[in-house]
Amino acid sequence: MTDDAATTDDATTTDDQDWERRIAALWERIDAHEPADFRARVAELAAERPADDPAALFEQGAAHDSTGLPEEAVAHYRRALDLGLTGLRRRRAVIQLASSLRNLGRPDLAVDLLTTERDVPADRLDADERALSGAVDAFLALALADTGRDREAASLALGALAPLLPRYNRSLAHYARALLTAPDGS
Question: Could you tell me the end-to-end alpha-carbon distance of the chain, in angstroms, rounded to an integer?
């Protein structure tokens, strides 16, 4: 690598870090902005990146989602994922896309997305991504309930809750699994 290439890579890294810092700071102040103003500020930051930058598209999707525009969010999330969004943002995009689809009356698509995400092997996820496994389960439980699969939804939600309890972890995990095999009404 030449010195010029090293300098360019360092500048890009610094620019990326600055952009990440500024987008994070804006999210910390979301409640200080009216929805349209917040979306505009995120769009301004996104415009600093290439038009096909998956992270910028994700942030725009999240801004639309967080300000009550799930249809617009879906388009941004799908584009970001299609362009190869990776890491923690990819997992967040899948969760948020599924949630938006569920809110738009497509819980079946949310179930498909989240079931696929739930099946990603843990060794392919970093610690931050694994930390969202409970969120995957929670949103999948909501989508399952919306599709009439209440026992699966309850089993999943209770199974996700079990490790967080100070006691009764094993019992609750057992009962959560049993919901899937017990006849209805028992």
Answer: 68
d(CA 186, CA 179): 9
For the ranges 124-133, 150-159, 177-186, the lowest mean pLDDT is seen at 177-186
The two structure tokens encoding residue 111: 């179930």
Q: What is the CA radius of gyration of the chain?
A: 20
> Are the CB atoms for 58 and 80 separated by under 8 Å?
yes
Chain centroid offset of residue 69 CA = 16
Phi (first) and psi of residue 149, to 5 degrees: -100, 60
Q: Which residue has the tokens 């079931």?
A: 115
Q: How many other CB atoms are there within 10 angstroms of residue 151's CB atom?
A: 14
- Report the predicted TM-score, pTM, of the whole model to 2 decimal places: 0.87
